[in-house]
Amino acid sequence: MSSLRSLTALIVEPQSGMRANLHNMLNLCGINKIDHAVSSGTAIRPLKNKSYDLIVCEYDLGEGQDGQQLLEDLRHNKLIPLWTIFIIVTAERAYEKVVSAAELAPTDYILKPFTADTLLERIARAIEKRTAFLPVYHLMEHGNLNEAIDICKVGQDKYRKYAIDFMRLRAELHVILGEPAPAEEIYQELMKTKAVAWARLGLAKTLFMQDKFGEAELLLKALVEENSRYMDAYDWLAKTHEAMGDLPQAKDVLTEAVGISPHAVRRLRHLGDVALETGDIDTAEKSFQKVVSKAKYSEFRDPEDHVRLVRTLVKKGDVKQAGTVIRDMEKSLSHIDKTGACKALSSALVHTEQGEAEQAMHHLTAAVEACRSVDGISNDMKMELAKNCLDHNMDDGASEVMRDVMSNAADDAAFAKAMEVFERAGRTELAQTVAKESRKHVVELVSSGAEKAKQGDFKGAVELMTAAVRKLPDNPQVVFNAAVAVLKYLENVGWEQRLGDRARGYIESARRLDPSNPRLVPLSDLYLGILKKYNVSAAGT
């Protein structure tokens, strides 16, 4: 097919013979722009800098991540665009396991052995479907979700063979926008046509969003009973139990899910958190041990996982093993900026358990100092740090850290959770003081950015708000105004691809954090208007 000659492809396959075989097959299909990777790690590195039309990935990648887990990492960390075709190659004996446990479905599966003709047929089929959905994907990539919904309706009529897929995507877009009612209506309609599991799961999500937890629970329980490998349903059932305040049930559901699909790091981490909260130290320890062990094969390792494990071991009283975990973190993750803060907090936990208050306070001070200069430390870790500062009467350190946490709160629930850290320590008055300071800080930050832009200092506004987002990535007000600052720069100074990509990312984050914000539509319109002004295509090229 001559239309395939322009495609770029990445083969992810550990066996050299099979890599050569796949390369030859792609050549026979007319695809010549081909790169190779031998593992998930070597695949992720080029994907951080380059986009491919097609990825052909072996399911069994040897030690470390499998092909399905690689896909989930790529999607979760947004390293591949929506229109990238991802085909998993797998042996027939593994096919049922792969398909039934998939969190995020690839474009297609191909069972070994297969011919070049089979591969060509699957690629051609994927290209045909991608062509139908490309206008929607471009709108989604650039944050114009309402228009994407309208195009889905058009596509539903124009491409009848993909009508159900367009309906499904339209429902998912309503969910992203925080509009459960129209999404529920679409899922109900889909269930009349075909009682597919994903439609029932989608309906359960919309019920959850409307706080109809009992109805959602019934749907989700039925789903996991009918298909014991439908992992997404387990995750939402656990989430529903948590929302209902039933943590032991959530733990049981996650334990069952991990038993079926034991390699998903995010689920293992979730199980560890819930187990620790319920006092099940053994389950928490096992879960976090597996997280640390499995994550070492990922390009997205997080030293905070070591902190979680150390915290669990300290609660168990095993300070010797906790010390080993700290040394491993220091040795293997020294290249990550926030490792210093994580090591300091972990060391403080160990010294506290050993009754060495002075040493513990020394490390807590170091952790607080690290938080000033290092981005990317989660709110959960900062709250753990603040809690330990309060336990040692280090009110200034706790207040400094919690100002950032409260300023970075994504919603009222997150803000209340932060307040609880002080309240549990019997420091309600201090909580109110810090809360007031954090709100003032955000207002002053946003006002300063707006004032710079108003005075024509568009570069200064961008620098200020970019730094603010790095520090407060979950505050919807900060992220929204950072998007405005970048767009005003582009509108008045000129197009820069780097800043255009940043603006798009900020708009996506603002939508995720506050999907019901009515100002998102004009913000997206401004972005698209700037693209048009500089004759930049929707694909960002």
Automatic annotation (TrEMBL):
Residue ranges annotated for the Response regulatory domain, each copy included: 8-127
InterPro entries given in the database record: CheY-like_superfamily, Sig_transdc_resp-reg_receiver, TPR-like_helical_dom_sf, TPR_rpt, WalR-like
GO biological process, one term: regulation of DNA-templated transcription
Assigned keywords, A-Z: DNA-binding, Phosphoprotein, Transcription, Transcription regulation, Two-component regulatory system
One Gene Ontology term, aspect cellular component: cytosol
SMART domains listed in its UniProt record: REC (SM00448), TPR (SM00028)
A GO molecular-function annotation: phosphorelay response regulator activity
Pfam families on file: Response_reg (PF00072), TPR_16 (PF13432)
Name of the molecule in the record: Response regulator
Species per Swiss-Prot/TrEMBL record: Noviherbaspirillum galbum
